[in-house]
Amino acid sequence: MDVTYTDVSFGGSNPINDATVRYSVIGVPSVFGSLNPYGANGRYQLLLDTTDFLGSDSYTLQITANKQNYQGNNIYIGVTILAIKSLINNTVGIYKTINVAYNDAQTFYFNYIIESSGIGLSQADILTYEWTEDISGTIVDSGTGLLNDLGDGLYSLDFNTETREIATYTIIINLEKENYAPRGGIIILNINPREFEVLLPSEYFVNNIVKGTSGEDLTFTIDISDYLNGSYITDSQVFLTFEKNQYPFISLGNGTYKITLIKDDIPYIFWSPEPRSAVITISKPNYETLNVPITVNVDMVQIFGFPMFYFLIIVIGVAAVVGSLVTYRAIQRAKIPTFVKRAKEISKNIKSRKSISDSLLYPSKQEYMVKKFGDKWNMLGLSLEDVLGLESKKKKKLPQMGESEGGAM
C-alpha cells in the first residue's frame, strides 16, 4: 500500500520527502514497522506480513508521519486479514446424498488442502462432526464425534454404518485450522433395506412364463440371493399369489425354493391354452420386499399325452366319416334289385360249396302263374294247378315279391 506525505501550507501541495513514516496495529503491539520511501514525490510504501497478525480478522492500522519543521500527522486505516483459501475434497463445501445398504460398512474421507498449492492441512484445530437420526420424519437420536487425522490433510469418518439401523442420518462435517478458511459439509446418509436378486431357472421359465397343464400338478423352483454380494438367502418368506390364493414355497437350501401346485389348484382349461397372471412375493427383515410378476400358461386337459379337445375332435371326426360311409353303403345297397342281390348270394354259396337256401330260389314259370292267377281261376270253378299239371302238395312257398321285382318273368 502507498502513502503520500505532502505539505499543504498556504493551499499548496508539495511532496515531503525524507520523512519518518511508521505504522502500528491498535491492540496488537507486536505488529509495527516503517514505511519505505518510494520515489521522490512524497510517496512511502507499506509492506505488511500477515503472518505477524494474530489471525484472520479485522484490525485498525495507525500510520504516523513526522519530519523536522513539519507538523506530524496520523491516519487510521481499517485492515481485514483474510484466512488463506482452502478446499475440502476440491470444493468449498460438501453437500451430497449417500445410499448404503443395511449391514454394509462404508468409511468417508475428506481432503483438507490449501487452494493455491494443494498442500494438505493436517492437525486441524477443529475436526468434528455432528449427526442426527431421522425415521419417518422424526429425529430419534443425535450425537457428535471427531474425525480421524490420517496426515497430509486427509481425514476420515467411520460412522459404523454396518451397525446402524435403517434410517436417514444427517452428518455435518467441520474442519478448521488457524489462518485458513474453515471447510465442511453436509452428508445425507440413507441406510436402506437390502435387496433380493431372483433367478427364474430356464428349466421351468421362458421370459417369466412357466407352463402348467389342467389336471396335472405344477412344480417349479426359484433361486434367491443378495443383490449386492451374491450370497444365498435361505431364510426368507416366499409365497405365490395365483388365482386369488396364496401358496408357500419351501426352502431347499443354497437359496433354492420350491413350490408344487396340485392339480386341483390349476384352472380347468378345455378349449385352448390360457395365460394366467401370478406374483411371487419375497420378504425378510431388513430387506426390501420384492414382487416378481410371472405368467402361468395353463395348457388344455391331456389324454394319452394329447390335448383332450383335439383328441375328441379327431374321434368325432373319424366316427362321422365311418358313419357316413356306412350310411352311403346302405343307401347304395338298397338301390340294387332284389334278384341281383339273390343272384350274388347264390354265387357266393356255389363258390363256397354250400347248399342254396330255398329263400334264394325262384319258383318255376308254372308255379309263378298259379301264384299270380290261381285265385281268379278258382272263381270260375277251375283249377289252374290241374291245367298246368302241378300238384298242390308240391308247391313251393313263393317269396314275397313286388310287381317290379324281376326274376322268372
Short descriptors:
4 helices, mainly beta, 409 residues, single chain, six-stranded mixed β-sheet, Immunoglobulin-like, five-stranded mixed β-sheet, 15% helix
Descriptive overview:
- The chain has helices at residues 308-334, 338-351, 365-379, 384-388, and strands at 2-4, 6-7, 14-15, 20-25, 28-34, 36-37, 43-45, 57-67, 70-81, 86-88, 94-101, 107-114, 126-135, 138-146, 148-151, 154-158, 167-176, 183-192, 196-199, 205-206, 209-213, 218-226, 237-242, 245-248, 250-253, 256-261, 274-283, 290-299, 302-303, 306-307.
- It is mainly β.
- The protein folds into four domains: 2-81; 86-192, Immunoglobulin-like, CATH 2.60.40.10; 196-300, Immunoglobulins (Immunoglobulin-like, Sandwich), CATH 2.60.40; 356-394, no CATH class.
- It has a six-stranded mixed sheet, with no helix packed on it. A five-stranded mixed sheet has the order 11-18-17-13-14, with no helix packed on it.
- The longest helix has 27 residues, at 308-334.
- The chain starts with a strand and ends in a 21-residue tail after the last helix.
- Mean pLDDT is 84; it is low at 401-409.
Output the radius of gyration.
Answer: 59 Å
CATH level 4 superfamily of the largest domain: Immunoglobulins
How many beta strands in the DSSP annotation? 30
CATH class label of the largest domain: Mainly Beta
SSE class? mainly beta
- List the domain count as a whole number: 4
**Share of residues in strands:** 35-45%
CATH topology of the largest domain: Immunoglobulin-like
- Lateral strand order in the biggest sheet: 20-21-28-27-23-24
Q: Average pLDDT, to the nearest integer?
A: 84
